[in-house]
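cron nightly-structures :: item 1 of 1
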Amino acid sequence: MQNNEYEIKPGNSYPFGCKHNGGGANFSIFSRYATRVELLLFATAEDKDPFLAIPLQKDINRTFYYWHVYIVGLPLGTWYNWRIDGANLTRENGFSFDKEKHLIDPWARAVSQKNWSRKAGCKPGDNGLTAMRCCVVDDRYDWEGDTPLRISSEKAIIYELHVGGFTRHPSAKANHPGTFSGLIEKIPYLEQLGITHVELLPIMAFDEQDVPRNTFDLGLKNYWGYSTHSFFSPHPGYCVTPEEGTHIQEFRDLVKALHKAGIGIIMDVVFNHTAESGAKGPILNFKGIGGKIFYHHDKFDKSIFVDYTGCGNTVNANHPLVANFIISCLEYWVNEMHVDGFRFDLASALTRGEHGEVLEDPPVLWGIELSEQLFKTKLIAEAWDAAGLYQVGSFPGYRWGEWNGRYRDVIRRFVRGDAGLLPEVATRICGSSDLYEHQGRLPISSINFVTCHDGFTLYDLFSYSEKRNLANGENNQDGSNENYSFNCGAEGETDNNSILQLRKQQAKNVFALLLLSQGVPMLFAGDEFLNSQKGNNNAYCQDNGLSWLDWGMAAQNADMVNFVQQMIALRKRHPSIMRRRFLTGKDISWHCTQSGQPQWDEPKARVLAYTLTGTNAVEADLHIVMNMSDEKVTVDLPLISGKEWCLAVDTSLLSFQEIIAPQHQNLVNNQSYTVNSKTIVVLENRDSNSKLLLE
């Protein structure tokens, strides 16, 4: 039983949220326009009634705009909510105060969604029975000397994955499927694959019920997690014992285990909108403590939420308080959780001012870039928003990486066989100097990817010409209609062996190009063993076998996994592919079938070759040929005095023969090589004494 006779003290305004110091707990929350604030304490996350309700007094428990209280002897594991009253929502003021609504703490370190009902949260009045709850947590932890990793960006190989879907399928054989703990069990696989960083889809606590009504009625839920409500709390759905408030410990265990394996962790963060949606959405936290500050509202009618994100609201990120909240949050995840980087969803929304105008120098983004505590943290922007703002190549700031959507699109088109793309293909695989060099930025500004969580999987990219999203409950209207995909001769599943072989070869072509390109490559989990979503290119609501990784496919397509492992190994042994500066004429020469004669202006050209010079006398040169035409071609090999060419990669060869480790490579005809259709070939050279120059 809880002791209801606690000594209550005024408390302090800092730190924000709840902080337990061993002798009790301090609570602090910001609400500039509140007229009444009440703290509710619960023994468990599911209790109907609080065992203690503490009304705060303005003259005792308020400092500037912060309401605070200290409770002596309050035990760890206590659950709590806030109730806040103030002005009603009107056209004039833009507030959403509701004196009966149970609010979660925006700074909460652990939350429970056990009894949560989004429907009840959208209605006015008391939702205590169905509200989320916050936990008073123990933030002590033995890091065993762990610190964030400092892997240079040019050496990074990112692997995007979904924490739940990575181990939720029975084939994963995880002891705790779909959790941070389950992911720990798969770290040996990640080590063997050779990636350097995992990029986790949102793991900050999000509302799984935030989906359209038709989708919800089908029993589906928000699976990807782009509906954050508690930015300091790991998602309870990824914890083994969230009812015990173990969120922080479980996530830290994952970070520490990844770091021990030499793998960094990048978090996908969603600061452009929250789970509270628009005017008809639920009141969870920000609306109830001061929505006028936290969100963009119509200039003339403050009851209207302006939406640049497609999710009902847009965070007013450049308001001083909100900017401070975002930067403090990021610093928390780095300092206290040892995270190595962040990928910002719809990051261009963060460049908008109070009235939606695009700011040349957004304070929040420069605050992030200039933060001393984030100085060595990787920053990656999805440099667009849902209202048409597209900033790939022009995102504010210097050290930000950008998801390069232009790389994705041209590589998809080139590999499927579109002609006349050679100049742009060459620019993209060389690090997109047209986008970044004039700004003084580097090849590492380009995060190169062909597939990600949003869109077709790699296998589906070559299996479906049209999306298949009916299962989402939106009449196939959701998801992109232009995927630059090609089904290789049959739509969807087929038993035609030639089509199946072509699909696999095309997948290898994509991996080869991705891992040979200057910049930072990003792979999507499961692509390396040809995971399929049956043509669904927007599986945001599919928390089921459609999205979960079937690990049986890893054994079935072991040749694909081997190919990706070996391509990663090839990249790692060639500093010439991982340059920090843009290539010059001394570093690269371009060809077609004849040496030194690329067909830049030929509208039907689909063959391109280039020679990449090693960074020193020890590193081998590379000669790479890309034949995306429908015919085989014979290409000249450049003559380099004192060196001979040996075959490293030929994606048209049989499985386990298409990529060759250095010790097993053979010399080829030193004058020419025949490249089959839809094929990537890579040759490495050795000196005339047959000594491989690869180390």
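cron nightly-structures :: done
The first helix runs from residue 58 to 61.
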